[in-house]
Write a structure and sequence with these properties.
43% of the residues lie in helices and 17% in strands. The chain has two domains: 136 residues, Response regulator (Rossmann fold, 3-Layer(aba) Sandwich), CATH 3.40.50.2300; 254 residues, 3-Layer(aba) Sandwich (Rossmann fold), CATH 3.40.50. It is elongated, with a radius of gyration of 24 Å. The longest helix has 20 residues. β10 and β11 form a beta hairpin. The strands form three sheets. The chain has an eight-stranded mixed sheet, with helices on both faces. It has a five-stranded parallel sheet with strand order 3-2-4-5-6, sandwiched between helices. α1 packs across α5, α2 crosses α3 and α6 crosses α16. The termini are far apart. It has 17 helices and 15 strands.
Length: 433
């Protein structure tokens, strides 16, 4: 059964494909489409492109009729290169109409080159985005096409959860929590499946994007140099085989993707390509845990948190962390009505420090998800042994709270357990001995 797509059902996880070599156009369209989804850029011969596009199951395909060969060259009307580019677009349009007649196709080009628009119309594409016009016009065209689009119903796509940890400032423990969460979740998945072979059962990925760089990889004793920037550069080749062979993996089976050694390489990573990478990775893992503790690019943080299923803001009770938390909340903006994915985690908690976890949550208007007890000494000691805390003290209160966070991810309406009253006081005394 087929049904029209409702615009309120289109999310940042929807897929759009642009068939073009022009990176400048891809960047422009990526921003224009980010309201509705993730843009994938593809360019190759028609025989290669056709099955690749069909396999991605996009909501919409954009075909380049601008005549550009690349962003660096200008259109030379009627040149051999221009004619060949238009011919490829026409050939691909016919092939897609034959292979996927219900798939919406939109032409892109410039009214400064009307021959491209005419070629698109003759190929049967009645919708046209003028890349030289304001982006609002692109919004109108895309919205009109999507409102009429027909897709098979129901559409079932496997997607892992994306959990993003945003540390209020460097040093509040986001990387430590991310590493423990990833490893314990991977153990939970393996125990549930009965498969103990990490070589074939990596179901959890840690996006080790916090600063200082590489802490997550260090905590999980992971080697490898295939970093986030390189993963973005190889986005078109990133299939399940490459994911499970080229990407670094911890002894416990967690796949780890860290920041590049040279952080300047991140400047080449566009926001829409980063989101496209996350979208692709979600098809291969049950959960992606993104550590953004200390990451300073505000626009990058906003884009990643916008695409996340869960956003956990991590702070401790120090004045510096609370001031930084206020700035972070301001950067992320107001919480949309009805949204519950943004929640607070208070780390290194000790009632003697003054402001309670509930008071912090109320002060910033955030639901209190979990309270992690002060365990600096024990965490340092286990890290110095090359181990995570649950490997040396599986019954520690910190470990039990992380286990509760995993329960929350598996069953969202089940709140992580928090010790109360005299029981919490007694357990604290016992754990300090």
């Amino acid at each position: 059964m087929n049904a029209p797509i409702a615009l309120n059902e289109i999310t940042t996880l929807s897929r759009f494909v642009l068939c073009s070599e022009n990176n400048q156009q891809a960047e422009w369209l990526g921003h224009a489409l980010e309201k509705w989804g993730t843009l994938w850029q593809e360019h190759s011969d028609v025989a290669t492109l056709l099955p690749r596009i069909i396999d991605r199951k996009p909501l919409l395909v954009l075909l380049d009729f601008s005549g550009f060969g690349s962003a660096e060259r200008s259109v030379i009307p009627h040149s051999d290169e221009c004619i060949a580019a238009i011919a490829r677009a026409v050939e691909l349009a016919h092939a897609l109409k034959s292979a996927a007649p219900d798939l919406p196709l939109v032409a892109i080009g410039s009214m400064a080159f009307p021959e491209g628009a005419i070629a698109a119309w003759r190929a049967g594409l009645s919708d046209f985005v003028d890349i030289s016009a304001p982006s609002e016009e692109a919004h109108e065209v895309i919205q009109r096409v999507l409102s009429k689009a027909i897709v098979p119903s129901p559409v079932v796509l496997k997607r892992g959860q994306l959990v993003t940890l945003v540390g209020a400032r460097p040093g509040v423990g986001a990387s430590t929590l991310s590493a423990h969460l990833a490893d314990l979740f991977q153990r939970r998945v393996q125990n549930r499946s009965g498969d103990k072979s990490a070589a074939i059962s990596s179901r959890v990925a840690l996006l080790d994007l916090g600063l200082p760089a590489g802490d997550g990889k260090l905590y999980l004793t992971t080697n490898g140099n295939f970093d986030f920037a390189e993963a973005v550069r190889n986005l078109r080749r990133l299939d399940e085989t490459l994911v499970h062979t080229a990407l670094s993996r911890s002894p416990g089976g967690v796949t780890v993707i860290s920041l590049p050694f040279n952080l300047s390489e991140m400047r080449t990573v566009s926001h829409h390509d980063a989101l496209a990478l996350l979208d692709q990775l979600r098809t291969y893992f049950d959960v992606l845990i993104a550590d953004l503790g200390g990451f300073s690019n505000q626009e990058f943080i906003t884009n990643i948190t916008g695409a996340s299923d869960h956003v956990w803001l991590l702070t401790d009770q120090s004045v510096g962390a609370l001031v930084s938390l206020a700035d972070t909340v301001k950067v992320l903006g107001e919480v949309p009505a009805g949204e519950r994915k943004r929640q607070l985690v208070v780390n290194r908690y000790d009632e003697r420090f003054g402001m309670s976890a509930q008071q912090i949550a109320e002060r910033f208007g955030l639901p209190l998800l979990a309270v992690l007890p002060e365990r600096t000494r024990k965490l340092f000691a286990s890290a110095n042994l090359g181990k995570l805390l649950h490997e040396v003290a599986p019954q520690d209160g910190y470990v039990r709270t992380v286990e509760g966070l995993i329960d929350h991810l598996i069953t969202p309406h089940a709140a992580p357990p928090r010790r109360q009253g005299i029981k919490r006081w007694i357990m604290t005394l016992l754990q300090r001995k």
